[in-house]
Amino acid sequence: MTVMIAAVAIVMGMSSCSSDDDEQEVALAQQVVGSYSGDEVITIMGDPDDGSATFEFVKASDTSIDMTIPQSGSEGPMVIPPLTVKNIPLSKVNQSIVGRLSSFDGTVKNASGAEKAFTVSDLTILFEDVPSGKAVVVAYTLKYGSMPFDMVTTFNGSKK
């Protein structure tokens, strides 16, 4: 009986010391999810092409996100459909949240229904001044299908 009372006292003491009153920190992914619109520069063989784009970020877990790269290119066979890069790990650096991924391989169906492979490499995402700010900078290299060249992309946007 004495052992039982001691065990109950220990459990009660530990539970009364919990920090339930402390505010829970919002998961990193939850702080950055959403649509960001802004300026995109795609450089192919040294030739930059400027335009506007909207990138989507959705929560994959508390500490990772999936990013959807918007469709790019002109009509016809040069159109690259939206591409999703999955499970990008996030970390907090001061008031910013950073996502980095060395490489991601995926597949997507193009407008004619053909399956195309793609690789996104050297991906860096910087969500600035989280949670008060709503700005993002994205940089990556894309290899799509059998194209013989890489597409180096940078994007600067703000939350819609």
CATH-defined topology: Lipocalin
CATH C-level name = Mainly Beta
Average pLDDT taken over every residue: 85
Globular, elongated, flat, extended or rod-shaped: what is the shape?
A: globular
Task: Give the SSE order as H and E letters.
Answer: HHEEEEEEEE
Rg from Cα = 22 Å
- In DSSP terms (H or I, runs of 4 or more residues), the helix count works out at 2
Structural class: mainly beta
Q: At CATH's second level, what is the architecture?
A: Beta Barrel
Low-confidence stretches: 1-24
Summarize the main sheet.
8 strands, antiparallel, barrel
What is the strand tally?
8
Strand ordering within the main sheet: 1-2-3-4-5-6-7-8
Percent of residues in β-strands:
over 45%
Q: What is the CA–CA distance across the termini?
A: 63 Å
How many domains, as an integer? 1
What is the helical fraction, as a range of percent? 10-25%
